[in-house]
Amino acid sequence: MYKKILVGIDGSDISTSALREAIKLARELSARLLLVHAIDMFPFTAAVSGLVGDAQLEEILFTTGRAIIGEARNEAQKAGLAVETALPQNLTEPIGMIVVEEATHWGADLIVMGTHGRRGIQHFMLGSVAERVTRAATCPVLLVPSRQQARLPEAPKLAGA
After folding, report:
1. Which terminus of the chain has fewer Cβ atoms in its 10 Å neighbourhood, N or C?
2. How far does Cα 93 stand from its chain's mean position?
3. Angle at which helices 13-29 and 54-78 pack, to 10 degrees?
4. Exposed, middle or buried, 155 (CB in 10 Å: 0-12/13-18/19+)?
5. Residues 6+ apart with CB under 8 A from 132
């Protein structure tokens, strides 16, 4: 079935939940994992210009990215899995497209990502990496919902229903 599973990692609790789900799948299927953390310079290229030197900002983002991906790699390796990592740098594209490019390049059979389940103005302002990946991917995408999303109250029942 799935032999190459790409996992999007951003250091959040929801990406950790997605990693754990991918680890379970990979163990059951004897699959390999590719952990991807995109170094997103795009929002900073115009907004921070002059406040922090470009080289200094890049080093901060790469140091943080290496720590995030290292922690995720350690968790997957403790589960006995074969793990690869990627830290692509993004200057021009939405992060979701970077994830899809990595999946295509690596030949992923499945992409696993967490989703925050944002709606309305939050979704409009913050966008959705998971949604972009789902729309652009050429392989299946497994979305792991956040705990907060899972705890949303049920819709009220209509009288007589």
Report:
1. C
2. 15
3. 40
4. exposed
5. 94, 95, 96, 97, 100
DSSP notation for the chain: ---EEEEE--SSHHHHHHHHHHHHHHHHHT-EEEEE--EE-HHHHHHSTTTS-HHHHHHHHHHHHHHHHHHHHHHHHHTT--EEEE--EESSS-HHHHHHHHHHHHT-SEEEEEE----HHHHHHH--HHHHHHHH-SS-EEEEEPHHHHTPPPPPPPTT-
Query: 60 vs 37, which has greater pLDDT?
Result: 37
Of the listed ranges 1-5, 7-11, 122-126, 145-149, the one predicted with least confidence? 122-126
Q: Please give the Cα distance from 138 to 101 (Å, whole number).
A: 10
Which pLDDT score, from 0 to 100, does residue 49 have? 52
Distance of CA 148 to the CA centre of its chain: 17
